[in-house]
Amino acid sequence: MARELTYAQSVERSIIKTYRKEIWNPFVEACQNYKLVNEGDKIAVCISGGKDSVLLAMCMKHLKRISDVNFDLEFICMDPGYNKANRRQIEENCKKLEIPVTIFESDIFDITTSVGGSPCYLCARMRRGHLYAKAQELGCNKIALGHHLSDVIETTLMGMFYGSQLQAMLPKLKSTNFQGMELIRPLYCVNENAVIKWRDYNDLTFIQCACRFVDEYSHSEDGIGESKRQEIKALIAQLKKINPDIEHNIFKSIHNVKLDTFIGYKQHGVEHSFLEEFE
């Protein structure tokens, strides 16, 4: 007689069974191909309260259980100033999914909303600093964030369209301000559509960013508002109707850069021109 699974076990099982091809296999592929999880690591899995970070936490839990690699996990969540409903939602989700999360507080929302304009970049940098500091305090050498394939290709296009540069999002990087610390992105090869399917399949409810700027685009008539990322999402969705492989092709292109065809590039902060080799 098969034992009855808890709700958390059932949700975890859906990752490796129902969504094995769409979520689990790409997750393992990223961990292996980019060498994200190594022997002796202690990784702080950062939970924002959204679908991506909670899926990441569930994947990392399962990986630790079955992996031949010996590593440890901490689950941390920074409360940047959530309202009571959002804080409660995070706590309830972690409880029912059996994620032993450590929640700590900061005043990031108060600071960033007072600077004027769109404070998203400042907010992201401040969040990361707080997460690194907490992870280091807990004896971790890495933090894991829930960025996925869709984030990678959207960031690449945003850099081209609005930043006049070709710049990708790396699957891992070393911290410049916290010595010995690294950031990893184990969902790097997982498409957001798969995350949404997994969420809906398990009837899960998550918070969004919970700041007034997210509110602005989610209640706007076009679903975009002032968010350039939402604008890029809409563009990719439109292009996908013509070319179903558009996301795959953009993602593969950042793995297949023909540097000798570029007019200029920057490496380690130093600008270079094709003329250096030409002459």
Please, could you describe this protein's structure?
It is a single chain. The protein is an alpha/beta fold. Helices cover about 50% and strands about 15% of the residues. The protein is built from twelve helices and eight strands. The chain has helices spanning about 5-15, 20-35, 50-65, 85-95, 110, 120-135, 150-165, 190-200, 210-220, 230-240, 245-255, 275-279; strands at about 40-45, 70-80, 100-105, 140-145, 170-175, 180-185, 265, 270-275. The strands form two sheets. It has a six-stranded mixed sheet with strand order 3-2-1-4-6-5, sandwiched between helices. Strands 7-8 form a two-stranded antiparallel ribbon. A hairpin with a 7-residue loop joins β5 and β6. α7 (about 150-165) packs across α10. The protein starts with 6 loop residues before the first helix and ends with a helix. The relative contact order is 0.14. The model is unreliable at about 215-225 (pLDDT under 50).
Find the structural class using helix and strand composition.
Answer: alpha/beta
Uncertain stretches: 215-225
The proportion of residues in beta strands is 5-15%
Question: Helical amount among residues, as a percent range?
Answer: 40-55%
Give, in spatial order, the strands making up the sheet with the most strands. 3-2-1-4-6-5
Our Rg estimate from Cα atoms comes to: 20 Å
The count of strands amounts to 8
Distance between the termini: 76 Å
Element-by-element helix/strand order: HHEHEHEHHEHEEHHHHEEH
Mean pLDDT: 89
Biggest pleated-sheet summary: 6 strands, mixed
